[in-house]
Amino acid sequence: MLRLEGVRIRLGDFALAADFALPAGALAAVLGPSGSGKSTLLGAVGGFLPVAQGRISWTGRDLTDLPPGARPVATIFQDNNLFPHMDAAANVALGLRPGGRLSAAERAAVDGALERVGLAGYAGRRPADLSGGQQSRVALARMLVQDRPLVTLDEPFAALGPALRAEMVALVRDLARDAGRTVLMVTHAPEDARRLGGLAIAVGDGRAAPPVPVAQLLDDPPPALRDYLGG
Amino acid sequence: MARRAQPLTLAGIGAAGLVGALILGTAVAVLAEAGRGRLGPADWAALRFTVVQAGLSAALSVGLAIPVARALARRRFAGRGLLITLLGAPFILPVIVAVLGLLAVFGRSGWVSAGLQAVGLPPLSIYGLHGVVLAHVFFNLPLAVRLILHGWQAIPAERFRLAASLGFGPGDVARVLERPMLRSVVPGALLVVFLICTTSFAVALTLGGGPRATTVELAIYQAVRFEFDLGRAALLALVQIALTGAVALAALGAAVPDGMGAGLGRVVARWDADAPMARRVDAVWIGLGALFLLAPLLSVVLRGAPGLLDLPGAVWAAAGRSAVVALVSAALAVTMAFAVAVAVARLGRRSGRAVEATAMLGIAASPLVIGTGLFLLTFPAVDPVTLALPVTASVNAVMSLPFALRALIPAVAAAERNHGRLADSLGLVGWRRHWRATLPAIRRPLGFAAGLAAALSMGDLGVVALFADASSGTLPLALYRLMAAYRMDDAAAAALLLLAASLALFWVFDRGGRGHVEA
Q1: Minimal Cα distance from B275: which residue of A?
Q2: CATH of A2-72+148-229, one of 3.40.50.920, 3.40.50.880, 3.40.50.300, 1.10.357.30
Q3: What 3-state DSSP class applies to A10?
Q4: Is the CB of B181 inside 8 Å of chain A's CB atoms?
């Protein structure tokens, strides 16, 4: 279980409060207006932003002061998820370990992950030779080989078209369920949140609300979220 | 864009043509004379020495710059911005002032030697190869740091963030991110420093000399001044042209990083460099780098200040001549640069590039070679001494033109892009257009370019040494004569005067370009 206890994050004038728990294996969409602090929340969980107050823990283990690489968190950013001078397989292999040669078993794991995301045969391609959707798939393959139970995704598919985005969200859902990962995914599209099909966390007015089932949040949104969603 | 030829466009083409004629014309003059010369073993030794010292200087400057740049790239501390600004200062620092400062710190009776003698060790001597290399490292280490720091900062912050999320340690960051960057940046930096070190006459003049430490340029100077063997001087000049030409071509092939650019102030968030040991190592590199740069300058100020007001009148007269030369040279350089920049913006892509490339020729030319060519062309008709100052001002202008163009070409292009159509629609053409629309928009780079040109000319000790005698020289030449006569207190005072004058000229123009409103 991911637990945020009395957490406050300050960025200049901006502050975000969060106090909630997310059960292990949950798939949670993070929704809210631009600038409301969705990425800030993920940055704090991932270790990229310092926490001013409170405590973040995963199954009882305190993460608050750990550097990003030491947290049980795999992160997929909006862009720049791959090193441009490395081919797809090398980028995925970084999830197993940053340096050194891979053993035969590890190479098989990399190939397996690429195959699982639909990129069998693309191992030798560099990011520049891959489409946007394929680049996202490589990042997801790396997430699969990383031994990290918690996955945060910060609008990873914002640059993709609607059909491709739907496909990718479904892939995230299936991969996470199969691998038993816990997911926090920022999105600005309510249909993505529904497709992820789990919980939803509303961020607004300087606060990240506790997760509720996504249908419940979208069918009866709080006022700030209602303005954002429109209609 | 089809526009009728404007007077300024023609002036720009003319200015570029003039530069091309000066550089190529003097090369032809040299070529014509070279047939009468013969090279001896000493001349081949000079070529070997030039290559060896430039190679050593480049390797040391760039090698030492890597840890300093890494430390600056990943540390945030009070004074960081000031230190990075200071890294640009050697560019406008007169070479001979720095040499005097280096002598005061590393020379036989300098601070380091005093320390060595206190513990019973022999004093250092920095004349010869190690002195030339030391001075070149002093000038080029800061440049190399800026070039490499630029490379570091060109690594997107997101890469370091991704590395942190994958748990990269310092070794992983070095292997995946930093070494690939260095592989692309270091060759260009090495070539740039090597090129600069093959054409730095003043360092060789003051710290080199003798059969074992003479560069090609110094050999040219000696052939003209002491032996009056113009054929040999011309042949040596040809050797120099071949050497710098070859290196410049190689540098064109390598991607040369941009060390003048802005944006060195940014510090990227790093998660891989927090270990106490890494912090200490970085602090040591930054401290050593700053000390190496500042101690020689401090020594010039300390030693020169007491004697400043007692300087002989001849030195003040030389300072006055230098100031006039610097102002004329700066005016020439920015006028030509503005005309060339307008021509480049107006002309089509291909002819624009050709004009720009011609005007940039000075970057790889040796002022001593141009001077030799001019000497060969004018000497039969005119007494060299009467030409000393005009020739110095013009050659200095040609040498600083590439830097002025680097500042002005993008600025004029941006001004045309932003307001060119508005000016067209208002019917602003010709001089009125430049006066009302273009010049105000490029005031800042114009002031910067003028300051750079004035300071470079003020401190230059090159071609003037070929032409001038004691009564007609510039301040750097007067300072060199004081040093050669071992009048070191007077020399230190003259160095302080020269340093102050160079910095003041740069500051006044640069400040003028910034205007009165914004600081």
Answers
A1: A67
A2: 3.40.50.300
A3: strand
A4: no
